[in-house]
Design goal:
412 residues; alpha/beta; Aspartate Aminotransferase, domain 1; Aspartate Aminotransferase, domain 2; 4-stranded mixed beta sheet
Length: 412
């Protein structure tokens, strides 16, 4: 007699980033020489973690009702105003002039992704994702009886448009629709940034499928870590204004990442389309999903966002803190890339963000041997291992490429 539901039977969380990171942290307490390059949280050069002082300042000014009471499932008008202001900046007027727009808060970017996938597919339909990709994309789909199809992300050092189109055509031919996730900029796990031309090429292809409903889930969780800055990353999203009515774009935003409030879950799902009816239908479904899944989101963090976007002075303070973080990330990345090149360690194209990823076969074995032989904890991804430069000071990064290269050569 089996009590568990059929759809839940046999599901076991394996090779999970949080668990591997917990193991690494426990090991490091016993042996400080351990190198923990697992989880995507930013640590300063002295090994400390802290959120932005601007966030602290706002939190200290809020009363208990602002922090601890329920928020509404849809976040309310002030939240919508704040997230659109933050997500689109100076491009907002142009985007709203071309597209119908709606937004709803979610528990982190993961909530926005889950809502978008759930409300775009029926059981046994297919979600298209890049490879390598953030692992939970697969779990989000499989946990709801959706299928997965992958396209390899790169063609040399550029986005693999040919591979994307080939897999898209296959899905469209069998299912008559397309739902795809693209993670950009500061891609997790590679650190790749799509160019505006590449993003426009994706939209142009979807535009050719005039009778095919297409959903582009644009996961921009690390958008504010891009070295190019907020102006350039927002201008890239103007590519969305070229989308025809058959396309709905669901932007998955993460304030958990942007504000360094990882455990204080707050994200947002922003819906964009020239088809106003599609936007409202998705918005209503997303609101229904929110109320009947997580109920509502972290009110204190919603209020932080609202207060930040209303104050140019606070925004300037935050920007200064953010620029310091991006400079540290850039310095770490340049060190690792330089040493990787010196020892002949191949990496995927990196332009910015928290992670650098190294292609390798036998990635699970390589990950185990890195721990056993070099005391290095990294996360395994699709035929690759990921280095979280966000959490590693330069002292840990120095010589790291050579150690990784040695183990990969030995076991690949």
């Amino acid at each position: 007699m089996r009590i568990i539901a059929k759809h839940a039977a046999g599901k076991v969380l394996k090779s999970d980033g949080f668990q591997i990171s917990a193991d690494a942290k426990l090991a490091k307490k016993k042996d400080p020489s351990i190198i923990d390059g697992t989880l995507g949280t930013f640590y300063f050069e002295d090994g400390s973690f802290k959120t932005f002082q601007t966030v602290h300042k706002i939190m200290n000014q809020l009363n208990d009702e602002d922090i601890y009471l329920y928020s509404t499932s849809d976040g309310g008008p002030a939240f919508k105003e704040a997230i659109l202001e933050w997500a689109f900046k100076h491009t907002r007027k142009e985007i709203e002039a071309s597209l119908s727009v709606a937004a709803i808060p979610t528990p982190g970017g993961t909530g926005a992704l889950t809502s978008a996938v759930f409300n775009s597919l029926d059981p046994q339909e297919t979600l298209l994702i890049p490879s390598p990709c953030w692992g939970p994309y697969v779990g989000i789909a499989l946990n709801r009886a959706f299928k997965i199809e992958k396209f390899f992300m790169f063609d040399g050092d550029a986005f693999n448009m040919k591979g994307f189109v080939e897999k898209s055509e296959k899905i469209i031919a069998t299912e008559g629709k397309l739902v795809v996730i693209i993670n950009d900029p500061c891609n997790n796990p590679t650190g790749y940034n799509m160019t505006k031309a590449e993003l426009e090429a994706v939209i142009d292809y979807l535009n050719t499928k005039k009778e095919v409903p297409c959903v582009l889930i644009y996961d921009c969780a690390y958008i504010d870590m891009a070295v190019e800055g907020m102006k350039k990353t927002r201008e890239n999203m103007l590519a969305f204004t070229k989308a025809n009515e058959n396309i709905l774009i669901s932007v998955a935003f993460s304030f958990s990442k942007t504000f360094f409030i990882y455990g204080q879950r707050l994200g947002g799902q922003i819906l964009l389309s020239k088809n106003k009816e599609s936007v409202m239908e998705y918005y209503n479904a997303a609101n229904y999903t929110a109320r009947n899944t997580w109920s509502n989101c972290n009110k204190g963090m919603i209020r932080v966002l609202e207060e930040m976007t209303k104050s140019p002075a606070l925004m300037a303070e935050y920007q200064q803190e953010l620029d310091e973080v991006i400079a540290v990330l850039n310095t770490r990345a340049e060190l690792f890339k330089k040493e990787a090149k010196q020892v002949g360690l191949q990496i995927y194209p990196y332009q910015g963000g928290f992670f650098i990823t190294i292609p390798c076969d036998n990635n699970m074995l390589v990950s185990e041997k890195l721990v056993e032989e070099e005391k290095i904890y990294l996360l395994p991804f699709d035929n690759s291992v990921r280095v979280a430069i966000c959490s590693l000071p330069q002292s840990d990064l120095k010589g790291l490429a050579e150690k990784i290269h040695r183990v990969i050569k030995k076991y690949n």
